[in-house]
């Protein structure tokens, strides 16, 4: 059930992203001829008012298609003012960026909904929550797993909130090759484990994502102002940490690249967080939605940011980029996306615990 809940959340996030593009287009009278969740051959397909809605075989995303994409079709004149390419740059920019805006809006609404209907943490509970661990890294080999709460390091209590996270991270970074002792709580049972951070560029690292322990006791919000303040702070914190994570791909690629997860690993993390209850699943939904928004903002082929980059160049040049160059740009992105997805799926699947048990009985 936890895996199904995780898959349902991912499907909802993809649906909401593509709905952003779709609604931004039709609200401006721009022609749309397709709305698909997934890629490849259609499993379910239905046409309504000239638009083909489909669920496809490869659940690696989705897309909204326009008559502009079909160069061989003569059904719509190429000078039709309602074609996307014939609209002013600001209107096209809105359609392209609407998916990112939709995911950011969804994350914010999810956090507001949780604060409104579930409540707010009285205060962050003591300790640091382990969000996820990277397979075959120090944390995983030491026995840490998602949902663990780290209460102390070398006998020193960590306290609570972001300061607790900073204290633990600082200790890890200053201890490459040095064994440290952690007090851990898992399923309300305390235990102590030893962990030796590996060394990377002079700093220690363990391969775990950490955050304040905010999945504990809750209370009703006092008023709408408190709800908005808490939700805004949590949203901005998640967004800021996500952006810093992607910045690390540029400034510290060797280390950060190991943290990239494919769809299989994302589902596994979602299933682990859903074991923490509704709060864990909400956090997963908000975090992945923000990640989708930031990822799609990158100026890479096939991503929304890549299309916005082409649009910006067109605005500077004063005329469209030649179609052959746009096509080559997008095709290179397709090969990169498919190749990376296949590699991540194989890697993440091979590292699942049940697969490891089959390989090493």
Could you walk me through the main structural features you see in this protein, from its secondary elements to its overall organization?
This protein is of the alpha+beta class. The protein has two domains: 2-100 and 298-359, no CATH class; 123-216, Pdz3 Domain (Roll), CATH 2.30.42. It is 51% helix and 20% strand. The chain has eleven helices and twelve strands. It has helices at residues 2-26, 89-117, 138-142, 162-173, 224-251, 253-256, 263-274, 278-297, 304-317, 323-350, 353-359; strands at residues 34-48, 51-65, 120-121, 128-133, 149-153, 156-157, 180-186, 189-195, 198-200, 203-205, 208-212, 218-219. Helix 1 (2-26) packs antiparallel against helix 2, helix 2 crosses helix 5 and helix 2 (89-117) packs antiparallel against helix 8 (278-297).
For the largest beta-sheet, the strand count, sense and barrel status come to: 6 strands, antiparallel
What fraction of residues sit in β-strands? 15-25%
Mean pLDDT across every amino acid position = 79
Shape: elongated
């Amino acid at each position: 059930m936890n895996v199904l809940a995780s898959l349902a959340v991912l499907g909802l996030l993809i649906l909401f992203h593509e709905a952003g593009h779709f609604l931004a287009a039709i609200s401006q009278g721009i022609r749309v001829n397709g709305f698909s969740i997934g890629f490849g051959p259609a499993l379910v397909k239905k046409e309504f008012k000239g638009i083909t809605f489909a669920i496809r075989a490869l659940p690696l995303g989705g897309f909204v298609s326009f008559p502009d994409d079909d160069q061989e079709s003569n059904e719509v004149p190429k000078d039709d003012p309602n074609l996307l390419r014939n609209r002013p740059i600001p209107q096209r920019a809105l359609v392209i960026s609407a998916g990112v805006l939709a995911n950011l809006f969804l994350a914010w609404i999810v956090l507001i909904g949780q604060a409104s209907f579930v409540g707010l943490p009285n205060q962050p509970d003591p300790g640091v929550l382990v969000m996820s661990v990277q397979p075959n890294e120090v944390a995983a080999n030491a026995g840490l797993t998602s949902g663990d709460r780290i209460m102390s390091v070398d006998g020193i209590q960590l306290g609570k909130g972001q300061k607790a996270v900073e204290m633990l991270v600082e200790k890890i970074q200053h201890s490459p090759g040095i064994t440290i002792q952690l007090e851990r709580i898992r399923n309300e049972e305390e235990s102590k484990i030893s962990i030796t951070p590996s060394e990377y560029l002079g700093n220690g690292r363990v391969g775990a994502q950490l955050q304040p322990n905010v999945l504990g006791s809750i209370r009703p919000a006092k008023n709408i102002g408190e709800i908005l303040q808490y939700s805004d702070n949590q949203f901005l914190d998640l967004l800021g940490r996500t952006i810093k994570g992607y910045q690390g791909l540029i400034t510290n690629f060797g280390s950060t690249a190991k943290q990239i997860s494919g769809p299989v690993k994302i589902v596994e993390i979602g299933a682990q967080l859903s074991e923490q209850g509704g709060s864990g699943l909400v956090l997963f939904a908000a975090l992945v939605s923000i990640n989708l928004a930031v990822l799609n903002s990158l100026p890479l082929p096939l991503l929304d940011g890549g299309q916005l980059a082409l649009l910006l160049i067109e605005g500077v040049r004063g005329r469209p980029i030649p179609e052959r160059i746009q096509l080559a740009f997008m095709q290179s992105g397709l090969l990169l996306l498919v190749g990376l997805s296949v590699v991540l799926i194989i890697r993440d699947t091979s590292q699942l615990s049940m697969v490891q048990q089959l390989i090493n009985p």
